[in-house]
Design a protein that fits this description.
The chain is α+β, with helices and mostly antiparallel strands. The protein is built from three helices and eight strands. It has one domain. Strands 1, 2, 3, 4, 5, 6, 7 and 8 form an eight-stranded antiparallel beta sheet that branches.
Length: 117
């Protein structure tokens, strides 16, 4: 399976403004790490809030927005409706590395994200 990482929209906005990251033509570059990621719009599903349970098994998962919309999801800001279920979500982007990540690079990226999030 391809290595992917979720970038919350709020964090990505901050990194672009402060120069930590560069976003051009759907690619995110982290200059300090020497890494590039192709971005796809996605969401991190935080919790089910309607009380009906998580029939779609989405809690704690990151999913592409397009995939969820194909399932019938309605997404507005930090909320999502799918069938009878309502969810709180974290909007953001799914990053697929351009090139490959070795263990050392994954460790560097984990430390970078832990520091800034």
């Amino acid at each position: 399976m391809e290595n992917r990482i979720f970038f919350p929209q709020s964090g990505l906005d901050e990194w672009v403004v402060d120069g930590t990251a560069d976003l051009q033509d759907g690619e995110l570059t982290l200059p300090a790490e020497g890494r590039k990621y192709k971005l796809t719009e996605g969401v991190y599903v935080l919790r089910e809030v309607s009380g009906g349970g998580d029939a779609h098994d989405l809690l704690g998962r990151v999913k592409a927005r397009e995939h969820l919309e194909q399932l019938g999801a309605e997404i507005v800001e930090s909320s999502m409706l799918l069938g009878e279920a309502a969810y709180d979500i974290e909007p953001g982007w799914i990053g697929s590395p351009v090139g490959s990540l070795g263990e050392r690079e994954e460790d560097l990226l984990a430390r970078f994200l832990a520091k800034d999030l």
